[in-house]
Structures are given as C-alpha cells and as structure tokens.
Amino acid sequence: MPADTIRIERPSTNSKLFTHTRWDTVPAAAGLFHLAYLLALYFLFPHSPLWVMLILGFVYSLMVNANINGVGHNFIHNPFFRSQLLNRLFGITQSIACCFSQTMYDAVHMQHHKGNSDRQDKKGDTIDWLSIYRHGHDGEAENPWSYVFLSFFRDDVGTIRKDLQKRKNGDDFWGNVELAAFATTLLFMAIIVPSNPVHFINWRFVLYFLPFWYLGHCFSYLNGYYRHYGANPDKPIAWGVSSYGKIYNWLFFYNGYHVQRFIGLKWKNSAETSSTCRSRKAFARSGTRTCSVSWILIYRNAAGATARLSARTLLPWRDSCSRLAVRGAKVFAPLAVRVSQRRGYSFAKVARIFPLLASHSSCNRRTSEASCFSRESISSALPSVCAFRI
C-alpha cells in the first residue's frame, strides 16, 4: 500500500433519505430531541418549581456535551442525509439546541484533526486550536481546570470565518445563518414570557439558562481534554485516548473509540501504520478533510472487539484500582486474618483478593504499538482495538 493511501470503510444503504445507513435515524432523532428539550425548558420555566428546573437545567448541560461529542461529531464526519439542504437544516437545529454554530464547529474540529492536540512549536503556537498544550507551559498540557472553564471564551470567530471562506462551498454563509438562528431563538426567549397572559422581558429565564448553557460546553471541553490527556502527541498512532465503557459509548454514539475512528482502516501491521501516518505539518498544508468511521460500524464490531481484548486492555481504570488494592491489602489483610482467627470466619480468603487483583494488573498504562494493529483484524471494517495509553 502506498505511503499516502488511507482506506476507509463506510456503510452503504439504498435509502433515498440517508447517505450511509438507516441507523442514522437514531442520532438524528437524538439531535431533534435535544432541540425539543430546550424548548420544553423555556415553556416549563414559568410553571415549574425552581428545584425541578435546576435538575432539568443540569440535564440540559449533560445533553449539550453528549450532542456535541456524539451527534454533532458524527454529523461532521458522516453527514446523515443525501440531500444537502436537509443536512444544512439539521445543522441549524443542532446550532439552536446547543446554542452554537454546527458549521463553525466543523471548522474547529477539522483543524483539531490537522493538529491532533499537538504541542507548541517554536513560536508557541499549535496547529490544533483546541490542543490541550496550546496554553500549557514547558511542553506540558494545560491545567484541566483552566482548559475546561476558559476554552469557551477562547474561540476566535474571525479566524474560523476565514477558514470557512477558504472552502468556497457556502459554509461561511450557513455558519452565519446558524449563529443568527440560535441568537434569534435566545432573543425571543429573553423577550417573551410564555405565561397566560403573555408577559415581556423574560430576564429570570435568561439568568437561569445561561449558566447551564455555559456548563454544557464546559462538559464538552472536559470530555475533549481527557480524549487526549495521557496520549503522546509526538507519536501518530498515539494521538488520542480511547475508552470502552458501554454506557458512555451508547450515550455518545461510540465516541469512546476515539483512536479507532481516525486512524486509517484495514492496516496490515504497525509498520505500515507508522509509514502511512504523515506528519502533521504536511497534513495541515494539504488541507485534506479527514474521514471518520461511522458510529454504526463501531457498534457492530464492538462485541467482537470486546471478545478479543483482555481485561487489562479494556479497563484502563483497573491500574488505579490495583494501586488501591495494594494499599487496601496492607491495611485490611492483617485485620482480616486476626478476625478470622478469632471468629472462624474466612476473611483471610477475602483479604487475599486484594493482592490477587493487583497481580492481574501491571500498573503500567503503556501498550505496545505492535499489538494495537495485528494482522488478524476484528473485521473487515475495523482494525484490532486496543487502549491507546501510550
């Protein structure tokens, strides 16, 4: 395979509505549900007690995170509909639901893939506008607190618009339409109080809603931070971090398989992988639009991947548990032995579980690159999966 060749598998369908798969009904419906949920918050606010609205507002914040990193993320790489107009209209619904611009998010996300959370260059700049190293010091990642709570205010709309204008495909126009759509929606909500009779100047709802809107985007930045924290930005095969929790991946449409989405598919071995991953700067200059594996392909192959992975690979958090287990064994094992000797209970056997758990985990999060892409892939659609904690 030539060094610059990347083979991408995509699902296909004969649907006249959907481009890739009819299963995209699920994320599309989830995006529309999020919009309906926002409207429900607006209409419920004058009639519901504050404690109920606070709970619903926090749920909205979580939904913003899941929408951006689940629905919106998949929509960027695999637009759901065959009709370009339908894709544009769905982008507007996404923009109103999350109170941002889906098209501008597209530009920022594509820039993210050009840099993949790269370190600062000699000028102190990064290719990736969202890089966790962009505002760090001494080559280290930025503190998660400042990254999560300040990134919301760091977007340079002017730079994003210039990037959209370069595309010359109408993205700049539709990005402005999306901004106007969500701004108009918020303005309407701020003016009209949905009560009987109707009142004006809905300042209470504005004070209620804005913090949860901000918190939702903070959650999204938190998610993005830990999709790259602990990875190695200097190794193309280890730019990101994957996680395999079922609930997380169900809610985020398998966003946890972060690395597997964005490395070319059907690699034969790690050597070929290394030769095919081009440098960031060359990739950035080329302006290539990266392709992503459809969430439904990852879903279909997740069961097979799970069967092939060891517990140590699937559960990166087990290393931390093992450390606690060792400490726990030092404290509780002697106590359990004493109790078992006095009362005849089998606590000693229970106590031995702690060092046993520890012995099954290496407390080393590094994974061999060669083991990540074996010759025997899980299927024709996905390479062998591993936890990229390199």
Could you walk me through the main structural features you see in this protein, from its secondary elements to its overall organization?
It is a single chain. By secondary structure, this protein is mainly α. The chain is 57% helix and 1% strand. Strands 1-2 form a two-stranded antiparallel ribbon. The longest helix is centred in the first third of the chain and has 28 residues, at 50-77.
Task: Summarize model confidence as the mean pLDDT.
Answer: 75
Helix content: 55-70%
Q: Give the strand content.
A: under 5%
The helix count comes to 18
What's the end-to-end separation, in Å?
A: 26 Å
Number of strands: 2
SSE run: HHHHHHHEEHHHHHHHHHHH
Largest sheet: 2 strands, antiparallel
Radius of gyration: 24 Å
Tell me the strand order in the biggest sheet. Answer: 1-2
Shape: globular
State the low-pLDDT regions, or none: 1-6, 264-291, 303-322, 343-390
Give the structural class.
mainly alpha
What is the gist of this entry?
The protein has 18 helices and 2 strands. It is mostly helical.
Q: Secondary structure elements and their pairing?
A:
Elements: H1 25-44, H2 50-77, H3 84-98, H4 102-115, H5 144-150, H6 157-167, H7 171-191, E1 192-193, E2 199-200, H8 203-225, H9 246-251, H10 258-262, H11 270-276, H12 280-286, H13 295-308, H14 311-314, H15 318-343, H16 347-351, H17 353-359, H18 369-372
Antiparallel strand pairs: 1-2
Q: What keyword list fits this structure?
A:
390 residues; mainly alpha; two-stranded antiparallel sheet; 18 helices; 2 strands; globular; disordered N terminus; disordered C terminus
